[in-house]
Amino acid sequence: MLLNIGKATPVITWNNPADITYGTAFGGTQLNATASTAGSFTYTPSTGTVLNVGNGQTLHVDFTPTDNTNYNVASKDVVINVLKATPTITWNNPADITTGTALSGTQLNATASVAGSFVYTPAAGTVLSEGNGQTLHVDFTPTAPANYNTASKDVMINVVAPATSSGSGGTSPDRDATSPGSGTASPGSGTTPTPPADSSQTMPTITWNITPAPIVYGTELGGVQLNATALVPGVFVYTPPAGTMLQAGNHQLLHMEFIPADSAHYSRVSRDVFIDVSKATPVINWANPSAIQFGTPLGAAQLNATASVPGAFVYTPAAGAVLSPGSHVLHVEFTPADSANYNSARLDVVIQIVEKPKATPAITWNNPADIVYGVALGAEQLNATASVPGGFVFTPGFGTLLNAGDNQILHVDFIPADTASYNSASMDVLINVQKSTPQIAWSNPADINYGVPLSATQLNAAASVAGSFVYTPAAGTILDTGNKVLHVDFTPVDSQNYNKTSKDVSIRVLPRNPFDNLFEFYNCTNGKSSGTTPGCR
Predict the structure, then answer these.
(1) Alpha-carbon distance values, 237 to 128, 201, 250, 254 (Å)
(2) Whole-model pTM over 0.70
(3) DSSP conformation class of 525
(4) Domains of the chain (ranges plus CATH)?
């Protein structure tokens, strides 16, 4: 029996990488597949590639095992989401301008980290009224909107009266010009400090970032946002207070009241700033499901994503779907119950659908008994059976005449009726084919009289196959009287497949008739004999 052992296929472990933003080149964080045996990986796209924005983009790896004698090459796909990048806008609070100065490129001079266009509000040429902490806003539209988000930023400008006399005009002492932000405060919205009620009191200088950095829902207000400072001792009272978790939304008011310790000489000061709170994105946990057999419908064992907040999942393909063999992407869309504060989210994983493992039928077939050359192969030799229904193809086939020889191979290929569940199978056995012995046909010859030489009349053996005869005694021999044995040795022409053989027959040699002797004597004495007749001298 011959046994075939196939190569093993290595197991590749590689999960869907975390989302990246446009501009992030692939590296070891994303291209980090491992295998169950030693070998090398080739990734497509390769290390250093920068993908365009898009969800569910395929990353492919080909694995070549070091031991390619015992292991197959293998491959696997995962998917990655590439999110749009947000351009960085650089724009500092402009220097103070005097009343009547039109806005121009000196103030409206924002730059961005990528190519695009700016739209300012108020626009160039606008003449602002006198006042401190007036908002200048810019909207930036990138040239490549497929890969970049739009962006915006606000700065503050003071418009002061011309310096005509001592103590008039100038810059508000509480203006923070060192921490530009991205808030959306508007002129006249409460960002100007409350003036002192008593002219004998001094207004403390307060520093507080007028445009706090945006935060994500779920972030509690703390020292990063509520971080006003004063040049004199006192107490800050914030509304809302530290620890508050704001709902998602833009331009939300943060109010600060400063109470100086020396209330006799310093006045209270209040200030408002605005903060943007963006929606949080839920975290979806969903690993690549284990491989399933073809024919198994998708169910809870595969469609089992969870999220960091309550909500609903919609899967594609849906539960109950039966996928074809191969690699397939499973997609989920998550809609949070609290859509006011959370974005929807999505994630892709990959599942492998494998063919149902086929069983190999068992063939029963013993080495046949020896046969003799000339016997055609038939059901006595080609009698293999299998453990399941199917058909047999024998080589050599029925009716074949094998030459003589030992250990000749008989082969069978078995094709199961249920090819979806069973593999084909094959088996070899050995048979010995012995030489055949020819049949000699030679009957006892008729009696002859003494003196008759042996000839083809007596030496007339025939064989079942072609060959040559050697007689003993040979043709021409004159036998003595009595019962004699004639012998023949037969040598077949096809000595590969036939044995030599021999045969004996009996012949009776009778004495001569006495009258024949007298007649011969007469002829001899009268000179009429040929000299060959027995008895003549």
Answers:
(1) 32, 20, 22, 11
(2) no
(3) H
(4) 12-84+282-354 (no CATH), 89-209+239-275 (no CATH), 363-434 (2.60.40), 440-510 (2.60.40)
Asked if residue 145 lies in contact with residue 103, where contact means CB atoms within 8 angstroms, the answer is no
Beta strands in 88-180 (DSSP E): 89-90, 97-98, 111-112, 116-121, 131-142, 151-160
Question: By C-alpha distance, which of 161, 177, 174, 160 is closest to 94?
Answer: 177
pLDDT in tens, 366-422: 999 999 999 999 999 999 999 999 999 999 999 999 999 999 999 999 999 999 889
How far apart, in whole angstroms, are the C-alpha atoms of residue 455 and residue 452? 9
Tell me whether residue 273 is exposed, middle or buried, using C-beta atoms within 10 angstroms of its C-beta: 0 to 12, 13 to 18, 19 or more: buried
Check: CB of residue 505 under 8 Å from CB of residue 442: yes
Classified as helix, coil or strand, 520 is helix
First to last CA, the chain: 81
Q: Tell whether the model's pLDDT for residue 287 goes beyond 90.
A: yes
Categorize the per-residue pLDDT at 528 as very low, low, confident or very high, splitting at 50, 70 and 90.
low
| 119/108 Cα distance (integer angstroms) | 9
What is the C-alpha R_g of the chain?
Answer: 56
Please tell me the distance from the alpha carbon of residue 236 to that of residue 226, in angstroms, as a whole number: 9
Q: Which is more confident, 110 or 211?
A: 110
User: Does residue 401 contact residue 376 with C-beta atoms inside 8 Å?
Assistant: yes
pLDDT > 90 fraction of the chain, expressed in percent and rounded: 82
Query: What type of residue sits at position 507?
Result: I
318 to each of 297, 321, 331, 362, 379, how far by Cα in Å? Answer: 10, 6, 9, 40, 55
Q: Are 206 and 260 in contact (CB under 8 A)?
A: no
